[in-house]
Amino acid sequence: MRTVSWHEGKVRMIDQRQLPWELSFLDFDDYRAVASAITDMVVRGAPAIGAAAAFGMAVASNQAPSPNPSEHLRFLNEAATTLKAARPTAVNLAWAVDRVLLAGQSQKFQSVDDIRSTILTEAQQIADEDILINKRMGEYGASLIQDGDTILHHCNTGALATVDWGTALGVIRSAHAQGKRFHVLLDETRPRLQGARLSAWELKQENIPFDIIADNAAGHFMRTGEVKVVLVGSDRTAANGDVANKIGTYKLAVVARENGIPFYPVVPTSTIDLNLPTGDEIPIEERHPDEVRAPFGHAIIPDDYPVRNPAFDVTPHRYVTGIVTENGIAYPPFVLNLRRAVAGELS
Ligand code: MRU
């Protein structure tokens, strides 16, 4: 089952806001609605929003009224701007939109029908590749997991955060498929509870043993020696190995280092932004304060209490043991080895 797919001329997505209580799907035939679904987190997770936006471009191409290819491309450029603005931190969004746009533009002397089919083919390819990439990361990453380990995991990085399989949770899935026996501690991941709701839902289906822990408990389990490895995803990784990921990741990395526990982000190369020298340049999304005041509509504090709600943080590369990519595991110096990973030249 794919998180995001193309179904009868529409983008189909699992409505992740309803999980774990209900598995339901929404179909979109308007690119602006696709952008809103990304902003509202119907679909979330860096590779999943990239694939959703790529299919959003295919929707836009169907919506574009003009029979004239250059006007059609102008419409697609506007759609690209809207889709890329849906969420700022995950670089996969812009990467995927630019990739399909470029494919469409290369057809500019052809008919609108050619542009449409090129864009849809490219979007399908992004979705299909994502699964293969995750499985490759799974194979590399599974070597980091030993029988008897307890793994600490943050947010949701699974099939739901991608097209299928997952990044850090994909590594966990691969290790399980290899017959390894281990336990997973899932940070609940306030305020949207992606760990408690989504990662737990996925691990339950796989029969992988887990416990959900309050975010504040992670330090305790690291200090008392239970945790053997920390696995997380990333929404954007800078050229020097600074890793932007779900808020709370930075604290985990610091406590992991304090306790001598390896900390590995699992990161497809589409999430590596070689244009950014350091993580300081990564835009950090601030989301609505009501996500903290009233998670999923249940008020826990009054409306007029002031709140800050950054959705991501940046972990400086000095806390990162290694970065698992589909081309191998990059170790320091990241400035050199991430470039090699992107070029497929990690030895
Ligand atoms: O705000 P979200 O739920 O989209 O954040 C998701 C994460 O932070 C994931 O760890 C990240 O996208 C990488 S995993 C595919």
**Total number of distinct structural domains:** 2
For the largest beta sheet, what order do the strands appear in spatially?
Answer: 6-5-4-7-10
Which geometry do the CA atoms define?
A: globular
Q: Strand-and-helix sequence, N→C?
A: EEEHHHHHEHEHEHEEEHEEHEEEH
Distance between the termini: 34 Å
Q: Name the beta content range.
A: 5-15%
- What small molecules are bound in this structure? 5-S-methyl-1-O-phosphono-5-thio-D-ribulose
Mean pLDDT: 97
How are the secondary structure elements laid out?
Blueprint lengths: L3 E4 L2 E5 L10 E4 L2 H9 L6 H18 L5 H16 L6 H15 L6 H31 L7 E4 L14 H10 L5 E5 L6 H13 L3 E4 L4 H6 L5 E4 L3 E3 L4 E4 L2 H10 L4 E3 L6 E2 L16 H4 L18 E4 L7 E3 L2 E3 L3 H10 L4
Parallel strand pairs: 4-5, 4-7, 5-6, 7-10, 8-11
Antiparallel strand pairs: 1-2, 2-3, 8-9, 9-12, 13-14
Bound molecules: 5-S-methyl-1-O-phosphono-5-thio-D-ribulose (MRU).
Structure, described:
- The longest helix has 31 residues.
- The protein is 41% helix and 15% strand.
- It is an alpha/beta fold.
- Helix 1 packs parallel to helix 3, helix 3 runs antiparallel to helix 4 and helix 5 crosses helix 6.
- The chain starts with a strand and ends with a helix.
- The site of 5-S-methyl-1-O-phosphono-5-thio-D-ribulose (MRU) has 17 residues, from helix 2 and strand 9.
